[in-house]
Write a structure and sequence with these properties.
Layout (H helix, E strand, L loop, with lengths): L9 H15 L12 H4 L3 H6 L5 E5 L5 E2 L2 H29 L7 H6 L30 H9 L2 H8 L2 H10 L33 E2 L12 E2 H16 L4 E6 L4 H23 L13 E8 L1 E2 L9 H9 L5 E5 L4 H4 L4 E7 L2 H9 L5 H4 L9
Antiparallel strand pairs: 1-2, 3-4, 5-6, 6-7, 6-9, 8-9
Helix pairs in contact: 1-4, 6-7, 8-13
Length: 373
């Protein structure tokens, strides 16, 4: 096999040509020697022996030593390579700082860096879809007119019925409806919601027709008519007679009633079974305590186990009444169960109350529980 001289091999020739091209454009400083030209030119053998070193034996002018041309070319190549490496590192560092890594040249074309070009008509503005405002019955002229007239039945009908009225009030989208207005069927009074004024007195109190009253105690006109109908329906159903013990109580009367309870069992016990003055539903004229009667009338405690009591639990809502203080709801209403205490809220709201499975007015209208004062 023929061996190649490494000094004349194609690889060596290519590298030498690269060195020549790298240094061709550079103007090297002239290195003079005071010796004769013949002495300055090294022979081929001498050059081979001094590749990569300067000629220490041939000082130039002013003591300047002469460098071999090959050495100069090689050092220039090293310098150029170092510059390229440093430039590449700088590009990589810049790309990392901007959150990206430079890719091939084709990537730079396909994915140019920097913000996208701005269209002729400027930066596009996001278009937000319009959201319709929540419908409220308070914006309905028919509803507000009925509300202003004081007609509770017409107001509820204008809202779309009892369920729609309740939903609007409970959700808070009917701020024009006040649950504190004592003249309204939807009034809510509890241990956290006293009357305003505290000594409120209704102006349309009447005695219910054809209903046995054990006390001279009236109710408001709508509740009186409804109670008459309820008592007649229970009698027609064969469950017996229903009378009532107490209905409206004034602020002054309630003071005496509550004081009597405190005297017997103390404040804590009185607060579980009797309202403080200014906090009693009886003051509204829309609450009534019924009793079962069969010739003679029995007590309040007899209602729960009587046929009249069972019928009332099933049908009172049909006449606009609810059992205000139900079994197991003391933590919400604040009172022990009272099977005898009926509260009138009107037929439409009573239907919504019954069909919705509610057991307290607080939950019906989305109000907080009121177990204590």
């Amino acid at each position: 096999m023929t061996s190649h001289d490494p000094e004349t091999s194609p690889r060596r020739a290519a590298r030498a040509e690269a060195e020549r091209l790298a240094t061709a454009a550079l103007t090297l400083p002239a290195v003079f020697d005071e010796r004769a030209p013949a002495e300055q030119a090294p022979t081929r053998g001498r050059r081979r022996g001094r590749i990569g070193a300067f000629d220490a034996a041939a000082p130039g002018p002013r003591g300047i030593r002469r460098f071999s041309p090959v050495l100069l070319r090689r050092r220039l190549v090293v310098v150029v390579a170092a510059v390229i490496v440093v430039a590449g590192c700088a590009v990589a560092i810049g790309a990392a700082a901007s959150g990206g890594v430079p890719g091939p040249a084709s990537d730079a074309v396909d994915h140019p860096s920097g913000p996208p070009p701005v269209a002729d008509d400027g930066i596009p503005v996001p278009q937000l879809a319009a959201v319709a405002a929540t419908a409220t019955p308070c914006d309905d002229p028919a509803f507000t007119a009925a509300l202003a007239s004081g007609d509770d039945a017409a107001t509820i009908a204008a809202a779309g019925g009892g369920q729609a009225f309740r939903a609007a009030v409970a959700s808070g989208i009917a701020p024009c409806v006040s649950l504190s207005d004592p003249n309204r069927e939807w009034l809510v009074v509890n241990k956290q919601r006293p009357y305003d004024p505290v000594d409120y007195q209704p102006g349309d109190l009447v005695m219910p027709a054809n209903v046995r009253a054990l006390e001279d105690s009236a109710v408001r006109a709508p509740a009186a008519a409804a109670l008459t109908s309820l008592v007649k329906a229970a009698s027609d159903a064969g469950v017996g007679e229903i009378g009532y013990l107490s209905a409206y109580r004034s602020y002054t009367t309630q003071k005496s009633t509550y004081a009597g309870r405190v005297a017997v069992g103390g404040v804590a016990e009185a607060d579980r079974e009797s309202a403080r003055p200014g906090f009693s539903e009886h003051q509204s004229g829309m609450a009534v305590d019924i009793v079962p009667c069969n010739g003679s009338c029995r007590t309040l405690d007899d209602v729960a186990g009587s046929p009249q009591g069972a019928w009332v639990r099933e049908h009172a809502w049909e006449y606009g009444f609810i059992t205000r203080y139900a079994e197991g709801r003391e933590s919400v209403s604040g009172y022990e169960p009272e099977a005898w205490h009926l509260r009138y809220i009107g037929p439409e709201l009573a239907r919504a109350y019954h069909e919705g499975g509610f057991t307290t007015l607080e939950e019906f209208f989305g109000l907080p529980a009121a177990p204590t004062y």
